[in-house]
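Collaborator request, handled under Task 6.
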Amino acid sequence: MLYIKPAFYDKFKCVADKCTDSCCVGWEIAVDNETMDVYKNMNTEFGCKIRENITENEDDTYSFKLLEGDRCPFLTENNLCDIILNCGEDSICYICKEHPRFYNDFQEVTEYGLGLCCEEVVRLLLENDEPLEFVAFNDEDEFFVVDESEKENYNKLFNIRNEFFRILRTTEAYNAKLEKIISVAEKFCGEKIKLSDDNEILEIYEKTEPINTEWTEYFEELKKNKGKILEKEKPFDEESNGDNKYSKLLSYIVFRHLLKTVFSDIADFYRYLSFCISSVRFIKLCDIKTYIEKGSVSEADRINNVKRWSKQIEYSEENIDLLIFEN
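Structure tokens returned to the collaborator:
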């Protein structure tokens, strides 16, 4: 088994109460059956408290009963986990242990990384202008039967993706890199690739299911000010030094999503690529909006704009499918 991960992966550590956000607010928190068995056998006062704050759903799954504002009932006023404080990290459910990690399994290869919904992950990704690198290692003790056709597709996509990474690591301007990527992709697909323009991007994003009212309000303001945003793009580009940031963002989004074509149809390759490129374009529009409002874009601003996009899009299968297959 070959494993591939971003080079900064092992630097990640949850910053807990130092985070300006919380992954324990705004999400449904599922409790897996194995952890539920642990909670059922906790013969303590705190065990009773845990069970009282869990609901059994109609499909025989379990989840925490969220408080007002979709807040986990075990999130303390200091934004720490009361279950960890009382029972240790081994007592939290699987989703809480793993978040914000993700895994993509491709038979003989597992690729894994960290979701951009987490501000510490985005900080690690964008903390410098060095190209995004990945590391790989083997575990020769793992074997399984391989589907040769899927393996062939994976190898083709893996090689073309590596060419994209090579282009994105160069010192050229971001738009020049995009032109080269499209040229390579068109040769691979054997057809012309049309990317969505800004109007089309905003139109399809408007159809996504909003994660909360804050997203809806933000998007409406973004759409209303599209004209001003586009007028300010040139001075923003001259002042923001964002080419390397967007190159790294595109590399990372491509890393997470592009090879899923293996599970779809290789003919959908251009759809996934278009989704990746349009995602970075949307984030850039958000950055320019911030630039207009504040006169500059700080590291914290960039982190918030990426995080907002990721929460709205990457953590909703319906929104992902909408942007990829209906655009």
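The cover message to the collaborator said: "The first strand starts at residue 2 and ends at 6. The two ends are 35 Å apart (CA to CA). Please let us know whether this matches your experimental observations."
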